[in-house]
Every structure is written in structure tokens, then in C-alpha cells.
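hey
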């Protein structure tokens, strides 16, 4: 991974830029590890829209995750495979781009997988100083869709067994109470 510090010289940042992807594709891991690297540059950012689309005057804020759950294995529920942490960035999309987005990702739903091209800002004043991609273009690569969770057989067996034991314990306690009452 590319890493830098605040004290790195401009020459060091240029040296690190030469090691990143030639297509200019940004990942949240690169942005977090070295936000100075692509500050003010045009980038491509790909990920799944999650949470809520926060509509504001002139556009909307999106949270776009580019982690393994968004781009490789899918939402956590159906596969139960752990692949690290969630990772994503805030994306500002102007009016005319966000209106065609489907429902964002959440439990039981995969959000639109999008590709945006825009300017990366390491300290966006309109985002309270957060890292932001200011989108100029947006392409929906895969539409939003519901995710059916598979039946968790071990959980169903455990729940059924627990309910059966609770019913037996209740019946036994009731029988004992009747015997004492006689």
C-alpha cells in the first residue's frame, strides 16, 4: 500500500504518484493512507451506494463503499464470509446525476454499483473537511436489487430445539404444580 506523511516533500509525493494505478482509479484505502497523493486530481472511483442519498440544493451526497463486500463477495448476509472492514468515501453528485439511482444498499438490498469520475478533495470544506470525490460523471454499472438471505439451517435447528425444551420445561413445571395442589 502507498503511505505518506504530512511531512513528506512534494518530490516524495510525486514519487508515490508514479506507483499508483495508471488509470487514476482511486480506492478508499489509498485515500486514507495518503490523502495528499491525489488531492485536486481527476480520479475514477467505483463502489456501491449505501445508506441514504442525502439530497441538498444543487445535488446529493452519497456514501460509496469500495470494499470487498461492495465489489467482490457481495453483501454480508448471503455468504457469511468475512473480508475485512467496510471502506468507502463521500461522493458529491450534482443535480442531473443522482436522480437515476435506485434504492441504496442496506440489509437485504444491494445498492447501485457506480463508477464516478471527478475531483478528489482531501479536505472538502463543504463536507466539514472530510475526504470527498466531487463527481462530474456517474455511470451505473449494476442496478440496485434485493438480496435473498439463505435459510440458516443451524440457527433454525437450535431455535426449534430451544422452543421444544422450553415447552417441555413449562409442561413439567405445570404438572408438578398440579400434583402439589392435590
Amino acid at each position: 500500500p502507498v503511505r505518506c506523511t504530512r511531512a513528506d516533500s512534494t518530490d516524495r509525493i510525486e514519487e508515490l504518484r508514479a506507483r499508483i494505478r495508471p488509470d487514476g482509479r482511486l480506492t478508499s484505502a489509498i485515500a486514507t493512507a495518503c490523502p495528499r497523493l491525489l488531492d485536486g486530481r481527476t480520479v475514477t472511483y467505483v463502489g456501491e451506494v449505501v445508506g441514504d442519498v442525502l439530497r441538498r440544493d444543487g445535488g446529493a451526497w452519497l456514501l460509496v463503499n469500495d470494499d470487498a463486500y461492495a465489489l467482490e463477495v457481495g453483501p454480508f448476509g448471503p455468504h457469511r464470509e468475512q473480508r475485512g472492514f467496510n471502506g468507502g468515501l463521500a461522493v458529491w453528485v450534482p443535480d442531473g446525476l443522482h436522480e437515476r439511482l435506485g434504492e441504496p444498499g442496506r440489509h437485504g438490498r444491494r445498492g447501485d454499483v457506480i463508477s464516478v469520475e471527478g475531483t478528489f478533495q482531501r479536505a472538502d470544506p463543504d463536507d466539514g473537511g472530510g475526504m470527498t470525490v466531487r463527481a462530474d460523471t456517474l455511470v451505473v454499472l449494476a442496478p440496485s436489487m434485493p438480496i435473498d438471505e439463505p435459510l440458516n439451517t443451524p440457527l433454525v435447528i437450535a431455535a426449534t430445539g430451544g422452543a421444544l425444551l422450553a415447552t417441555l420445561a413449562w409442561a413439567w413445571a405445570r404438572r408438578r404444580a398440579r400434583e402439589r395442589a392435590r
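The first helix runs from residue 10 to 17. The first strand starts at residue 25 and ends at 26.
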